[in-house]
Amino acid sequence: MQQLLEILVKNLVKNENDVEITKQEQASSITFVVKVNSEDIGKVIGKNGKMASSIRTIIKSVGAKEHKKIYVKFGD
Length: 76
Description:
The chain is α+β, with helices and mostly antiparallel strands. Helices cover about 35% and strands about 25% of the residues. It has helices spanning about 1-10, 40-45, 50-65; strands spanning about 20-25, 30-35, 70-75. A hairpin with a 3-residue loop joins strand 1 and strand 2 (about 30-35). The radius of gyration is 12 Å and the shape is globular. It starts with a helix and ends with a strand.
């Protein structure tokens, strides 16, 4: 799941080396925190948050097998 998220984000940004994804796992949920270069944050979030919403939907559908809530947070 984390690898898929990394591939999705790296294909959107200009500075691929600045992409950092951390995983925080609790008993009932998994949170991925995605940090990118400040130049690229707009590309990852997209117009009206549509790109971020699409990324979250993909990751949640892949993570449904684990029966945990999946969250994706974006920052710079």
